[in-house]
């Protein structure tokens, strides 16, 4: 059986001195204040992959989002009504605005959620926008490196690398602001729309954490600027389209909490006028809709992609269809959707197309027939759900309590920022939950991935 250390198991386990704790206690190490109360456990052990695996993840995280951008044109032929019916519950005004935003070709960060199966990596989701999580774990990298001799020995330090997701993202952000605002000179200010639910101390910790990263990239670009936080409604547009917080000009707006902070007319107008970089515009939820996986497969099966891209999609995206009444084809045979769901229960997953943190994800093999039927009713009554073939993770040995190495299931979160691979982190569970969902919010342990060169 594979371990999370792959071919480096002996290197790491023979060099461990003393009783290494299973997870990192943030209070015992110098981690940013923002992560002192990090709510998810972070493994003291790394995950180690080889260069070929890293290169495969690199290609997936940079190429699949590019293909995703083709869905409105290749599948919907940019038809406003069809787009509105599919993504915006028939609201053609929203459909028109969504397509308008999409066609501005604003680069947006992404995170692929994958499993590694007997047949290779399978992409379960493509998450888009500022609010994608997982980047926080990078702040524990120096701690993990200090705990393992193979990572700190002078002779081998360069042999194990972990892409700095946070820095890659901030560099991507600064680059895209400059691309959006080519006349920008001297100053670049970034506004994080985070609402008013947090304490003043938490707000300051977030601002300081982000601003420290930003200052490094601004210095490299020979710019000055700062990070500001608040409610998005506090931003106001000037007559020339520039956006301001009080008397401070704003050049980018990032929405970390899309459930409470939505784009206001002032922010939207400034974006349309090309005055700000706004990755969380109305076109981004279109790209992040999980039903797009089924559309990508449909485009590939219709030979609308070149052969290499077609092969990439069909190899790495599992069979996926929207949960809708009607006929579907599964492994070459046609079924009524309800018939298929009953017949292949243990091979299928029902999940919300815009869900997060493992919510409204139903894995057939872990549910009773009654629970599975209830999931189907929920999906059909509410709409916006997908049916996906189960892509079960291989078992990987990883430490559990008392440093006993036991089988774990892994979900890989791989980041892509335009043409830049942003690294990968994993969530791993030594036992499936009652629903078979592996997610930090449902008890999985997080870990940083290193590449062995």
Automatic annotation (TrEMBL):
Q: Which domain of life is it from?
A: Bacteria
Name of protein:
Circularly permuted ATP-grasp superfamily protein
